[in-house]
Amino acid sequence: MRAIAEAVAPSAEGLPGAEEQVPVGAPMSRFMADLPPEVSRAVRLALRLFERLPFPWRFSRLSLEARQEYLAKMEGARFAPYRDLMLLGKLLAMMGWARDERVQAAAGFEARCAVAEGSPAPRSAPLGSLEPLGDGEECDVAIIGSGAGGAAAAVILAEAGLDVVVLEQGPHVGRHDYPTDPLEALPLLYRDAGMTIATGRPAIPVPVGRAVGGTTVINSGTCFRAPLGVLADWSRSAGVGWATSLDDEYEAAERMLQVTPVDTDLMGRNGQLCMEGARAIGASGGPISRNAGRCVQCSSCPVGCRIDAKRAMHVSYLPRAVAAGARVRAGVEALQVRIEDGRATGVICRAGSATSAVEAAAARNGAHPSLRSWELRARTVISAGGAFGTPELLMRSGVRNRHLGSHLHVHPAAWIGARYEQEVRGWEGIMQSYYVDEWESRRILLEATFTPLSFGGHWLPGVGPELMARIRDYGKIASIGVHLHDRSEGRVGRSANGSLRLSYRLRADETADLQFGIARAAEIHFAAGATEVYPNVGPVQVITRDRLADFEATRLKPADLRLEAFHPMSTARMSSDPGEGVTGADGSVHGVEGLYVCDAGLLPTSVGVNPMMTIIACSAHVARGLAGELC
Ligand SMILES: Cc1cc2nc3c(=O)[nH]c(=O)nc-3n(C[C@H](O)[C@H](O)[C@H](O)COP(=O)(O)OP(=O)(O)OC[C@H]3O[C@@H](n4cnc5c(N)ncnc54)[C@H](O)[C@@H]3O)c2cc1C
Ligand code: SF4
């Protein structure tokens, strides 16, 4: 790791060098030690491969210049696995290096989250005791998972007078506890410390949250309703008739989360440049609506909102559910739904993991949590562990359905950065601020999204001095995310040792759609004044305005793209036909009484826009139906 970091980020352009001034190997080794064993094994294997690849030489024994030359060749290699390996090495090196305050200061970067003057002060109500009691508890409804779907369901059911317990395997992390160091924040707030990766060509990282509040704790707060065409398709093709009548649920969620459109004067240059470029080429779009009121100045959304401006579930729905009598239990992993005579009767769990940031830090420092068996007896069970957690749990519980874990959609996304002559200082604006929906018919949505240096540095092309020059000018980089409304599918499964196994296969025709979207993002950047664009496509690292047509004419293979994804969905999809889905239109699991799903897994297809509001709306609808039955 040290040898890679030194070569990727040497001291240059006034930036302190990796290992020379900024230790990277030691903190990254500690970070890797905290990863779940199977993830840690995979990363270490990749690093060993790196070391042996320049056979007969060893990578770490090459001179600095030879290592840089080797890495540059890997980055531009025609053979995709070389590029994937290089991207992983660069990502780890950047994460370890760019977190250092000296690096951030040299790049001019400052994270200062704040709300606009005159906005109401962000507030959050208490969640009560999060400690699981004794060796078990009892309730009417057990909800496994405290994210968007689980929390929304908890409010409806608790307010209907039912006794509700919400189980969450992650800890509760409050506004005073968010670490600023990504190497501490990732293991605390994300599943697999953010290293959840779907294998395939290309391999796609798909991070998800693991904390009280689920992924909403670390998401960007963007709020969209699903396009009407998508909801009509769910109604028609999946037999989910109510999908076209979700207006009331969306309205209630928007009220609850205080959703407002971003103020274009406050959104910052990253969004404004996207808006100016889109307008210049006549592309339709608008300011994004968010659940963070009038927050300004950002970059911290992926590691938690330190001022609670963002109405994540642990500061919005969950306190409301608790006020109505619900109990939230943190550090409790549901191992299996107890199913007796075809009916769910409770949840078999392991309790005793960290319930707070303080306990999580103690565990990282060697304190052994005393894990214990724990059981929640319930009349009804709702799985709300997200698009990965739900199939994982239901498979462990013996639910057999060929659609379970299949049809994984993720909205594959490409980060398209560009360099401008003017200052952008993307961190002085709202992270996700302006959308362009002109190309909805090609299933493409663009969103101006600024990424903090520690999470975005590896997307810039080059290594060594070339990369350092770009990082020195990070303040002049703007970025647009290109999202695909995917029909391509993946799969959630379990490996022999029971760990999560993900795969995703990008279709050739959708590769062409993504390439089209990347070209449109580049066009917008150029129209707004960019001098060069970074398409994040293996064989093409930089596009200039005069080469855009050539880029479009190049036929790309799926493996040529470098993608990430944030919206896993559809792994327990609803269909009124038991032969076509895992759950019925009422959210109940086909073939098991008293077992429901309320999370991203429910969605019959990909949504095409950021899914949180649709997950909330669908889960609330399912919970309302269930409350009607149980009360
Ligand atoms: C970086 C990032 C940014 C994003 N930005 C946006 C955005 O701006 N707008 C938007 O609409 N969407 C965004 N998303 C996606 C959005 O946040 C998710 O789609 C949404 O939160 C999913 O809701 P869910 O209820 O399905 O699962 P989650 O919110 O992921 O909650 C599931 C919870 O269940 C817990 N769990 C799982 N299994 C178990 C078990 N066995 N026992 C106990 N607990 C368990 C997990 O720890 C987790 O906390 C973003 C995602 C990421 C990663
Ligand atoms: S919502 Fe995000 S950008 Fe806004 S104040 Fe919170 S962390 Fe900062």
Task: Give a topology summary.
Layout: H1 2-8, H2 25-33, H3 37-52, H4 64-75, H5 80-98, H6 101-106, E1 114-115, E2 136-144, H7 148-159, E3 164-167, H8 182-189, E4 197-198, E5 204-205, H9 228-237, H10 247-256, E6 260-261, H11 269-280, E7 285-287, E8 289-290, E9 295-296, H12 317-323, E10 327-329, E11 333-340, E12 343-351, H13 357-364, E13 372-383, H14 386-396, E14 413-420, E15 432-436, E16 444-449, H15 453-456, H16 464-472, E17 477-484, E18 489-494, E19 500-505, H17 508-527, E20 530-534, H18 548-553, E21 595-597, H19 612-630
Parallel strand pairs: 2-3, 2-13, 3-10, 13-21
Antiparallel strand pairs: 1-9, 4-5, 6-8, 7-15, 11-12, 12-13, 14-17, 14-20, 15-16, 16-17, 18-19
Bound molecules: flavin-adenine dinucleotide (FAD) and iron/sulfur cluster (SF4).
How would you explain this protein's 3D organization?
The protein is of the alpha+beta class and 631 residues long. It has 3 domains: 1-106, no CATH class; 136-176 and 224-258 and 311-402 and 574-630, FAD/NAD(P)-binding domain, CATH 3.50.50.60; 259-290 and 413-485 and 507-562, Cholesterol Oxidase, domain 2. The protein contains 19 helices and 21 strands. The strands form 6 sheets. Strands 2, 3, 10, 11, 12, 13 and 21 form a 7-stranded mixed sheet that branches. A 6-stranded antiparallel sheet has the order 7-15-16-17-14-20, with helices on one face. It has a two-stranded antiparallel sheet with strand order 1-9. Helix 1 (2-8) crosses helix 5 (80-98), helix 7 runs parallel beside helix 12 and helix 11 (269-280) crosses helix 17. The model has no long low-confidence stretch (mean pLDDT 94). The structure holds flavin-adenine dinucleotide and iron/sulfur cluster (SF4). Flavin-adenine dinucleotide (FAD) is lined by residues 144-150, 167-170, 207-211, 214-216, 218-222, 302, 333-334, 384-387, 389, 393, 432, 566-567, 599-600, 610-612, 615. Iron/sulfur cluster is lined by residues 113, 221, 292, 295, 298, 300-301, 305, 307, 309-310, 431.
